[in-house]
Known about the structure:
Helix content is 67%, strand content 4%. The protein is mostly helical. Helix 2 packs across helix 3 (57-69) and helix 6 (136-154) packs parallel to helix 8. The longest helix is centred in the middle third of the chain and has 25 residues, at 88-112. It is globular and about 55 Å long.
Amino acid sequence: MTDAFAVLESARSPRRSRRSSREVAYEAIKDAILSGRIPPHERLVEERLAEALAISRTPVREALAILEHEGLLESEPYKGLAVRPVTIDEFLNMYEALGVVEAALARAAARNATGADIRKMDAALQQAEEAIPDHVPEHLAACRAFQAQLGAAADSPFLTRTLLGIEERSDMYLIHSARSLSAENMQAAVDDRRSIIECIRAGDSEVAAGR
Length: 211
């Protein structure tokens, strides 16, 4: 079984004065979940998490509550909080919703994006492509970074949070699914989003939304 606590020790922050302990705990635990280092059903124990991160239990408890609210954790009988698995039906429903929300953001971004926004989206896709084929979690994280920047360019915080929430849960399924994510699918995800960028660069909101 994966040691869900040892993997967090490297997240101890030497610059904690710039971030609250709750932020440190939240970011470290979430990153470990989304990178696949903490698998579904893995129990998360406050005491051990606090020890691994060298912080008190209260900020860890607060971070776990936020992650439960976001749908990444759930309370399991006789076990406590654990990483919530994603079913195939959930994944298919989320995939359909993702396309709708991403299209709405692309439409708005085509009207509002600056040159700096486009450069940041290009950089995220470059990172996503460099992760092909052997670094699936890094590829997925870079695609989420693209979507976050797309949302920033669209100036739509609510839809951006919705999109990233869907994408995080979808990525958990892809990482832990018995079926591996192929290099062809990874490249297709990059190519599709490059098409979005080209439409945004041209200011074509309707075509951007239809990609």
